[in-house]
Design goal:
By secondary structure, this protein is of the alpha/beta class. The chain has 16 helices and 11 strands. The protein has helices spanning about 10-20, 40-50, 60-70, 80-90, 105-115, 125-140, 150-160, 195-200, 210-215, 220-230, 270-280, 290-295, 310-320, 325-340, 350-360, 370-385; strands spanning about 1-5, 30-35, 50-55, 75-80, 95-100, 120, 145, 170-180, 240-245, 250-255, 260-265. Helix 4 (about 80-90) runs parallel beside helix 5 (about 105-115), helix 6 (about 125-140) packs antiparallel against helix 14 (about 325-340) and helix 15 (about 350-360) packs across helix 16 (about 370-385). The model has no long low-confidence stretch (mean pLDDT about 95). Bound molecules: nicotinamide-adenine-dinucleotide and magnesium ion. Magnesium ion binds near residues 149, 150, 151 and 224. Nicotinamide-adenine-dinucleotide binds near residues 8, 56, 125 and 269.
C-alpha cells in the first residue's frame, strides 16, 4: 500500500512513520510533506526513500533539494501548497495521513478527499471548518474517512460495522472523554498566570504545541465535539463530554439497551494510527499492554464549563452552525499563537474567541471559498482585538 504523509515531521507524522517502519512489507511511503523542517525531512527521506518530499516553504525546499542531491537520493523535492495538494492526490497513492496542524491542512486534506483516497484524519481543524462540504465530498468522491483522533477512533471502534447514523444503530449517546489537561485542578484564580511551558506540559500525552495548548484550554475537546458531530452524524445533544484524567478509556458509545462500549489502551497515538492503517485488519503497533494490576482506579466526572469556557463556546458554535465553527477555529488559532508568543495570557485565549463569536454575523458557507473568506475575516477580527489589548 502506498502512503502519503502530510505533516510527517510532526508528532502524528513521526508516530505514523514508526508504525510504517514496523511493516515494511505492507506499506511504502510514496511522499512526505511538511512546512519547513529541512533536517527532519531529510532524515525521513533517507530512511523511507519516498518518491516525493514536499516543503511548503520554498526556500526550505531548495535547501532540502541540495542536501538530498548531496546524498545521491532519488527523492524528488516539490514545494508550496500545490506540492502538498499533489502528493495527496497522486494516482499511485492509496492512503493519505492528513496530519498538518490547523487550517493550514485544509487544502491538502480536501485534495485527498476529492481524489477518493483512504483518508486518515488527524487534522480535525479541516473538518471543524468545512463539516458539511467535507462530508459531502467524502460521499461524492467515494473517499474513505478513518478517524485518527484517539477519541473518535475509539468511538469508531465501538460502532457496528455498517454504521449509518446513531438512531439506526440503536445508539443512545456518545460519551466523549477528555483528561481535563494540565490545569484540571489548578485554582481558577491562578489560570491567568499560566505560562506556555506549563500549558504544553500535558500529563498523559506527548503532542505538538498547538494541540497541547488546546488541551489545556479544553478547546481541543470543543473542536473534537464538532468533529464527532460530523464524523458520526450526531446532533450536539447526542454527545456528552466526560472528564477522565487517566486517558485510558478513549471514549464510549451507549446503546439503547443500556450497554456502554468503551475502547481502552495506553495513551499512545500509534494505536489509532495502526487501527486506521490496517483497517479492517489489526496490525502490530508496538504499543505496550495495559497493566490492569498497576492501573488502579479510573475516574470520571462532569466537565467544568466555567474553568474551560472554550468548551461551551465550541458546543454553542456547533449548535448555531453556519460559519460559527470557522470563526471559532480561526480565533482559537490566532489566540494560541499569540499566547505562545507571550502576547496574551492564558485566560485571554477564551476571551478572544468569545469576543469574535459575539460580533460574528453568521452565514452558511456554501463553498470552500466562502469558508476561507470567513476564516480570513475571523483572523482579522482576532488581530484587531489583540491590538486593542
Ligand atoms: P505538530 O505541530 O507536531 O506537527 C505539525 C506538522 O504539520 C509538522 O510536520 C509541520 O511541518 C506541518 N505543518 C505545520 N504548518 C504547516 C503548513 N503551514 N503547511 C504545511 N505543513 C505544515 O502537530 P501534531 O501534534 O502532530 O498535530 C497534527 C494534527 O493532528 C493536528 O490537527 C492535531 O489536532 C491532530 N492530532 C494530534 C494528536 C497528537 O497526539 N499529536 C492527537 C490527535 C489529533
Ligand atoms: Mg483527541
Amino acid at each position: 500500500m502506498q502512503v502519503s504523509v502530510l505533516g510527517s515531521t510532526g508528532s502524528i507524522g513521526v508516530n505514523t512513520l514508526d508504525v510504517i517502519r514496523t511493516h515494511p512489507d505492507k506499506y511504502q511511503v510514496f511522499a512526505l510533506g511538511a512546512n519547513r523542517s529541512v533536517e527532519a525531512l531529510h532524515q525521513q527521506c533517507m530512511e523511507f526513500r519516498p518518491r516525493y518530499a514536499v516543503l511548503r516553504d520554498t526556500a526550505a525546499a531548495a535547501l532540502l533539494r541540495e542536501s538530498l542531491a548531496a546524498c545521491s537520493s532519488d527523492t524528488e523535492v516539490l514545494e508550496g501548497e500545490q506540492g502538498l495538494i499533489d502528493i495527496a492526490a497522486a494516482a499511485e497513492v492509496d492512503t493519505v495521513m492528513a496530519a498538518i496542524v490547523g487550517a493550514a491542512g485544509l487544502d491538502s486534506t480536501l485534495s485527498a478527499v476529492t481524489s477518493g483516497k483512504r483518508v486518515l484524519l488527524a487534522n480535525k481543524e479541516s473538518l471543524v471548518m468545512c463539516g458539511k462540504l467535507f462530508t459531502d465530498a467524502v460521499e461524492t468522491h467515494g473517499a474513505q474517512l478513518l478517524p485518527i483522533d484517539s477519541e473518535h477512533n475509539a468511538i469508531f471502534q465501538c460502532l457496528p460495522e455498517r454504521f449509518n447514523g446513531l438512531r439506526e444503530a440503536g445508539i443512545r449517546k456518545i460519551l466523549l472523554t477528555g483528561s481535563g489537561g494540565p490545569f484540571r485542578q489548578t485554582p481558577v484564580t491562578e489560570l491567568a498566570n499560566k505560562t506556555p511551558a506549563e500549558a504544553v506540559a500535558h500529563p498523559n500525552w506527548s503532542m505538538g504545541q498547538k494541540i497541547s495548548v488546546d488541551s489545556a484550554t479544553m478547546m481541543n475537546k470543543g473542536l473534537e465535539f464538532i468533529e464527532a458531530c460530523w464524523l458520526f452524524k450526531a446532533r450536539p445533544e447526542d454527545i456528552e463530554v466526560v472528564i477522565h484524567p487517566q486517558s485510558i478509556v478513549h471514549s464510549m458509545v451507549e446503546y439503547v439497551d443500556g450497554s456502554v462500549l468503551a475502547q481502552m489502551g495506553m495513551p499512545d497515538m500509534r494505536t489509532p494510527i495502526a487501527n486506521c492503517l490496517g483497517w479492517p485488519a489489526r496490525i502490530e503497533s508496538k504499543v505496550e499492554s495495559l497493566n490492569f494490576y498497576r492501573l488502579g482506579s479510573l475516574e470520571f466526572s462532569a466537565p467544568d464549563f466555567e474553568r474551560f469556557p472554550g468548551l461551551g463556546l465550541s458546543i454553542e458554535a456547533m449548535r448555531v452552525g453556519g460559519d460559527y465553527p470557522v470563526a471559532l477555529n480561526a480565533a482559537n488559532e490566532v489566540a494560541v499563537e499569540a499566547f505562545l508568543a507571550g502576547r496574551i495570557g492564558f485566560t485571554q485565549i477564551a476571551e478572544l474567541i468569545a469576543r469574535v463569536l459575539d460580533v460574528w454575523k453568521s452565514s452558511e458557507p456554501d463553498s470552500l471559498a466562502a469558508v476561507k473568506d470567513a476564516d480570513l475575516k475571523a483572523r482579522k477580527l482576532s488581530e484587531h482585538w489583540l491590538l486593542s489589548q
